[in-house]
Amino acid sequence: MPPDFNLPFVLSVVGAFLTSAVVAAIYVWPALRAMPRYAALRLLAAFNAFRFLGMNFMVAGFVSSELSPDFAGQVGWGDLIAATLALVSMAALTWRWSIAVPLVWIFNVWGTLDLLNAYYMGVTKIQNPGLFGAGIYIPAVYVPLLLVSHVLVFMILLRGGAEAKAP
């Protein structure tokens, strides 16, 4: 193992992924499956609309001053774009725009790749989760929840169907 490997942090992230997936399978997916497609997508987009929290990685004192500004900027701006795409998707679904589903695809692909990129950069470039400071809970708790929500969006998108049933 690399010298900067942090087993407690890795286990907390794995635990958050496992718990998020189990809760989603038992409680969230059955409820979403019973909802009209647009309503289910709108609910999941709403959860992702809070991704502006990633901007905090660029706030002095929230993270260690030793955290790479390139990493912080890429994570922060990527999250802000994802949050904006989630909000636009919510509007498109609510107002039944003809481009609603393509916008959700864009939001979901962007959001998923942004999170995976942030994890990749964190593992390959940062390696010390202590540099996240107060932001440690974002990759340890919030990102696993977000990634599971993106999987749910993909499942709904790939299922297709029932836009007409949405209120």
Compact description:
The protein has 167 residues and is mostly helical. It has helices at 7-34, 37-48, 69-94, 100-126, 137-159.
Could you tell me how far the N terminus lies from the C terminus, measured between alpha carbons in angstroms?
A: 53 Å
What is the chains' assembly state? single chain
Could you describe the largest sheet, including whether it forms a barrel? none
Category by helix and strand content: mainly alpha
Write down the secondary-structure element order.
Answer: HHHHH
Q: Count the strands?
A: 0
Radius of gyration: 17 Å
How many domain modules?
Answer: 1
Overall spatial form: globular
Helix content: 55-70%
Which spans have pLDDT < 50 for at least 5 consecutive residues? none
Number of helical stretches of at least 4 residues: 5
**Mean pLDDT level:** 92
Strand content: under 5%
What would your notes on this structure say?
This protein has one domain (7-160). It has helices at residues 7-34, 37-48, 69-94, 100-126, 137-159. It has 167 residues and is mainly α. Helix 1 packs parallel to helix 5 (137-159), helix 2 packs antiparallel against helix 5 (137-159) and helix 3 runs antiparallel to helix 4 (100-126). The protein starts with 6 loop residues before the first helix and ends in an 8-residue tail after the last helix. The mean pLDDT is 92.
SSE topology:
Layout: H1 7-34, H2 37-48, H3 69-94, H4 100-126, H5 137-159
Helix pairs in contact: 1-5, 2-3, 2-5, 3-4, 4-5
Main attributes of the structure:
0% strand; mainly alpha; transmembrane helix; 167 residues
